[in-house]
Prior knowledge:
- The chain is 57% helix and 10% strand.
- It has 13 helices and four strands.
- A four-stranded antiparallel sheet has the order 1-4-3-2, with helices on both faces.
- The longest helix is centred in the middle third of the chain and has 28 residues, at 164-191.
- The protein starts with 10 loop residues before the first helix and ends with a helix.
Amino acid sequence: MSAKSGTFPNGAALAELDAWRQLTTSATVREQQVAFTCATGVPLTLLPASAAPGALFDEAFCVKGCLGSPSGDVCREKVLRAEQRALRRLGPTQYSCPSGLLKIIVPVFIGGRHAGSLLAGPFSVHALEGARLAEQVERLEKQGLGDRVSQLRTTWRHTPLISAEKCRAAGTLLRMFARYLEESGKRTLQKGVPASSPLLRKIEAFLAESQDSRVSLKEVAARVNLSPCHFCAVFKKQTGLTFTEYRTQQRLEKAQRLLHDPERRVSDVAFAAGFESIPYFNRAFRRRFGCSPSEFRLRLAR
Length: 302
């Protein structure tokens, strides 16, 4: 998967994924999910990001294939490609499944990382007849499913037919729901942040006082009256990070805050946050947040 979808390599990313799981199992979110379907007539599924460990797209509505094997494999590939397009667009993306029915996928970002998606559908805005039927049969033949016309008719017959206006309204509701999930996920992450230890508070105070962002590990250890070796062991035990990892994380969080100012150039943000190399800053930012600094700004603009 591309970096935009995130690879969940560390504890912070797993915390964002856990926040998504908490949201999707909460009674409030389930109630909104049901309300969306009742209001629009369109089924709605909440999916984990495909890059998440153990992500199962089989829970997506009809992804096992309404036309029989191997239509499920084709459907799954279409979901994954649509997810990537939605990540590039940073917003809702409409696509068609192997049966020619429509679906809308909307990525949800928690803590700047793609944690999950809303998948609405299948539905149609036109009846399956005349030229549309002939066109769909031709598509099935290209996919090696030309003998599934009977199943195709059955699928369309049991799929919601909605107006173009209701389709647009569904897209609006999905965007609103995604924003709600992003804000709720952010609050969930904040609740899970543990209180810092006295040692960490001393270190943070010293780093805040220091005007030199290149302050060394040896200097910090001396400030808290520990040898460098003992400091490293204690610090790793209390934070789960090496001092270098911690410093990088602090700089990235500062950079994320600075990026909210549209007047600052990305290079200025990198140097202000303590990075000496723009390429390294871009790589570190992408690893931490699942997107480049410029892409992060686009998400803010959205």
